[in-house]
Amino acid sequence: MGTIIIGAKIGNLAVIACDRRISHDDDFYQDDDDKFLDVGDGFIIACSGNARTAQIAERMINRRADVHFDTKNDVIDFAEDLQVELERLGAGRPDSNALPECPSEFMIGQSGNLWTVDTDFFVSNVSDYSCIGCGHLIGYGAMGMAWRGKARNKDTLELAIRVVCARNQFCGGEANIRSH
Fold first, then answer.
1. Rounded CA gap, 103 and 118, in Å?
2. The dihedral of CA 165, 170, 176, 178: what is its sign?
3. Is 64 exposed, middle or buried (0-12, 13-18, 19+ CB in 10 A)?
4. Which of 80, 111, 113, 165 is most buried, judged by most C-beta within 10 A?
5. Long-range contact set of residues 93-96: C-beta below 8 Å, sequence gap at least 24
6. What is the pTM of this model?
């Protein structure tokens, strides 16, 4: 499954943009997917990779009323809880910090903070912008050019998504952009 997710800190907001394409192998494409998890409005979270992993994370978050991402430790707690839940459900191999079915990554925004959770559950605090998914290298190129030119707004993220979708067959559809 292909995806491009680009996040940026713009002013006091965390802004995340995603493509809408889901794909399977080289012959199935659908351009109306939502990469954002349905977890209420206290924060935004998008997932690249395995749809099953995204569903497990969404259910895990929605079962708990105390989920928040104010600090890096909060995100680390989420990543560790997800690792345990995937092991419990047989969806991953936490002993090797890997998700064997399909790598999944998460981008999380709350109150101007932006975080990524990598396929090995490593948590990073994003200081300016970040890209995840199979189109991440093209995304970094597009964002790097715009960022150096001081173009730092939601339109920049939408343009970067368009660039990736034009160059990576596994990314496509209109940009879906949210902020917190």
1. 9
2. negative
3. exposed
4. 165
5. 94/121
6. 0.91
